[in-house]
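Teaching assistant here, posting this on the class forum so everyone can see the example we discussed in section. The complex has two components, and the goal was to see what a joint structure prediction looks like when all of them are supplied at once.
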Amino acid sequence: MTNNAFLEPGNDEPDQLNEKLLHAAIKLNTLLLAGVFGCISGLAMFVLTYLSLYRGLPQPGQYLNLLGVFLPGYSVSHSGAWIGLFWGALIGALLAAMFYRIYARSIPSQVQEYLQSGRSKDDLMGVTLRFDGNYLGLALGTIIAGGLFITTSWLVFRGTAEESVHAILLAQYLPGYSVSIAGGLIGAAELFCVVYLICRLFSWIHNTVALYRGRNPL
Amino acid sequence: MTSKADTDKAILMAAFAKMDPVALAVAVGTVWALILMTVTAVLLIKGAPPDGEIGGHLELLGIYLPGYQVSWMGGALGGVYAWLLGAVVGFVLALLWNMTHYLYVVMIVVRSAWWRLMAD
């Protein structure tokens, strides 16, 4: 399917979602979000590396260098900044795409709500995005918790679990977490709950402010 | 009964809905500030381990946030920093999101006009 689906006729059945248009819209937003986040996270890695290089007294990159465990070739150096830019862009884009694929499951219900509210006279470009805290929490929680489990498992499989003195510090915030498969699972479950709650709070703040400012949330 | 045009319009609204930069700035800033203040407070409430100082690693944030330290005052200062940083990130993110959508819409309109012109 191409993005031309925006210009093509879909099904003609009223009361049914135009699946072709819906999928084209999700695909487009996935690409746009992946592009935006790829750029932001790549640049963030680049800037952080240089900040650490020039402000990381007395040993530049003493801790940031640990990212090299997960990102092959990365180090706090001039060449490492470019490698960090590449990894940051790649991982940022992939995670953003995964995030939107999960979050987009909220679109059909948002569309149904909109149709039931009888606001079909609204200006097409005049509406503001309304975050769905439930799906936002599910999407971000899954990705962040999955990330914790994968990185913990990576430390276990490469045989450096015992030396991972920094990873174990997470146990300060996630009781029961340890650098082991079981500990990773416990930590991931706890982190999922924390992220889910934060996303509910975030959505509530965003939607409340948007409404207060007289915006027209979808 | 809902017409097909209405459902298609609703899908496009969901896909192309603008982000409110101010709302996103406030939300991201507030959440980041709360997170940084909470992680600082957790360490302060738990207290120092028998053989170490409180938050030796978290305090390294002071490299990027001048003046930040693991103390109640440092946590409050870190909260202000996190709010400002989160607000800027949220604002820029919303602008980028809106801009990419506008650019895409312009691209579609131009392409559509071009093909119509060629067909004529």
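For the discussion questions: Chain A has five helices and no strands. The mean pLDDT of chain A is 82. Think about how each of these relates to the inputs above.
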